[in-house]
Amino acid sequence: MEQKLTLFELNQWIKDALNTAIPGTVWVVAEVSELKENRNGHCYLELVEKEGNEIVARARATIWSYTYRILKPYFETTTGQFFTHGLKVLVQVSVEYHPAYGLSLNIKDIDPAYTVGDMALQRKEIVERLQNEGVFDMNRELELPLVPQKIAVISSKTAAGYQDFINQLENNSPGIKFYTHLFEAYMQGSEAVPSIIFALDRIFEYEDFFDAVAIIRGGGATADLSSFDNYDLAFHITQFPLPVVTGIGHEKDDTIIDLVAHTRMKTPTAVAEFFISGAERFYERLIALEEGVVQVTRETVDSKQEQLEGIAENIHRFAGAFIHEKTRQLVKTGNSLHHEVNRFVFRKKYELNNLKHDLHSAFSVWKVEKRNSIDRQKGILKQVVHEALLNETTGFNRLKELTRHASDRFLAKEQERIVRNENLIRLLNPENVLKRGYTLTMKEGKIVKSIYPLQINDEIETRFSDGTVKSKITKKEGDGNKKSDL
Amino acid sequence: MTYNEAISEVEEILEKIENEELDVDELAEKVKRVSTLLKICKDKLLKTNEQVEQILKEMEE
Asked: In chain A, which end has fewer C-beta atoms inside a 10 angstrom radius, N or C?
């Protein structure tokens, strides 16, 4: 039978072996999976190594308080990162083995440069992945509304930054009205990423309502930023339809979500200022436009008025000048007309006088001549009339003699003829004929010259010189049936 | 009406006035329009919109 050992003896043996095998200290790369500080200021950690998601090595570790007091601020100021779980670290350790408590690594020193490099590397990988997927700039390419007035806030109600943000927004100087709604999320620790993504999902339901999203977190000297170097969260932000503005309170390098966000501000107050200044610029633009319109309108109206006045003045001036000129012309024309008329009148008067004079003398001459001529003609006429009268008297006397002579002859001749006719007439008178024994036969008052109209028994009247008898026809002889030539 | 639409219209009118494209009658009408648009913008910017407040309130529930 082999020699029996107690557990303590075995563990003591392991301890001795380890001391021999790993003397002094070694530099170890590991990930901090857990970290606790106790009341005495000692720090207890769990270090792991992963292959993918699988843990392939695990070890407990401690940092004694006197070391931790120096290491922690050194690490945090160098990395800008809380010394907390999830970090990859390069630490100098001595391997300790305690028979009662087992294996533990005592951390003597830490190299922050490694963590910075690792974080940078991780971030670089995430950035490259987002770029390769073509989403990296998508949120930044969104157009921020002219006035982002309705803001969805992702923060923690208790975060100091949140209240600063709200106060800042509400007390802006122009009095611009902002509408905010808080979508609560954890802003640090392992819950941060999923709770922020959940908040984004809720805001997405009000996509049409909000103008922008603000992710804010109160500042501090340092902060746990590893949550914001997360691919999933960054991807969500790139895909979000509203512009995301970050203010997660840190001064150092930008986190991934700062890089993909539409706008990155350093603090929540700065985010509030960002929104206010946008709205203020717009407000100022409104005022400027207002003043501009008033001024331009006034200028336009003034210039129109000026034009009008100018035109009126010109009209006045031109009209005055025109009237003056026309008056002058008129006066001139009037004067010359007057002059011409005077000259004309004078000339005509002169001519008229001449004419009158001429006429007068011509008339005198003519009068004398005419008188002479008339006297002459009067003499001639008197002579002619005298001669004519003399002639006529002579002719007339001769004619008187001739007439008396002729009429005496004519009267004698007529006397003779009348006597002859008296005899003839005496012979021809029916009374005288009847007296000589001739009768006149009449029927019904008419003279009957033929037997033709007379019938047997007709009553006829026979006129004698001393009376009439009536008789009836008893017989008719001769060719009395033939019509006579009456 | 969005801020953008309002501002664009105002700027368009302003440009027309500056270029003297408007006669005096149109000018009066356009200036009135500008004043209305600016008032809308200012009110929207500075005064609380009850409808918006109501929507925010509904989000709480």
From this structure: N
Domain ranges of chain B: 3-60
- Concatenated DSSP letters for A177-213? --EEEEEE---SSTTHHHHHHHHHHHHHTTTTT-SEE
Buried b (16+ CB within 10 A) or exposed e, A155-168: bbeebebbebbbeb
**What is d(CA A267, CA A165) in angstroms, rounded to the nearest whole number?**
9
Asked whether the predicted pLDDT for residue A185 surpasses 70, the reply is yes
Helix (H) / strand (E) containing A106: strand A102-110
Local confidence band at A146 (pLDDT 50, 70, 90 cut-offs): confident
| B50 inside 8 A of chain A by CB | no
Cα-based distances in Å from A360 to A234, A354, A355, A365, A367: 139, 10, 8, 9, 10
CA-based torsion, A262, A265, A270, A274: positive or negative = negative
- Whether domain A136-285 has CATH 3.30.160.250: the reply is no
Is the Cβ–Cβ distance between A306 and A176 less than 8 Å?
no
Strands A26-37 and A88-98 come out as antiparallel
| pTM of the predicted model as reported, rounded to 2 decimal places | 0.58
Residue A435 makes CB contacts below 8 A (sequence gap 6+) with: A465
pLDDT digits (tens, 9 = 90+) for A154-170: 998 887 788 889 999 99
- Cβ–Cβ below 8 Å for A179 and B53: yes
Is the backbone of residue A445 left (phi > 0), alpha (psi -120 to 50) or beta?
A: left
Nearest partner of A26 among A97, A96, A92, judged by Cα: A92
Chain B interface, mutation test: which of A202, A293, A306, most B Cβ atoms within 10 Å?
A: A293
SS3 for A380?
Answer: helix
Q: How far is B61 from chain A (nearest CA, A)?
A: 12
Top-confidence residue, A249 or A50: A50
B2-59 pLDDT, tens digit each: 888 888 898 888 888 888 777 778 888 888 888 899 898 888 888 888 888 888 888 8
Given strand A179-184, what is the order of strands in its sheet?
Answer: A179-184, A150-155, A212-216, A244-247, A263-265
Q: Distance, in angstroms, between A237 CA and closest chain B CA?
A: 22
Closest CA to A144 of A274, A327, A324, A309: A274
Class of domain A7-110: mainly beta
Neighbouring CB atoms inside 10 A of A214's CB total: 28
| Ramachandran quadrant class, A364 (left: phi over 0; alpha: psi -120 to 50; beta: rest) | alpha
> Mean of the pLDDT values across residues A55-61?
94
Is B54 touching A (CB cutoff 8 A)?
Answer: no
ipTM of this predicted complex?
0.87
> What's the length of chain A?
486
CB contact B38 to A (< 8 Å): yes
CB atoms A146 and B13 under 8 Å: no
Spatial separation of the C-alpha atoms in residues A86 and A109, rounded to whole Å: 18
CB A241 within 8 A of CB A204: yes
Burial of A215 (0-12, 13-18, 19+ CB in 10 A): buried
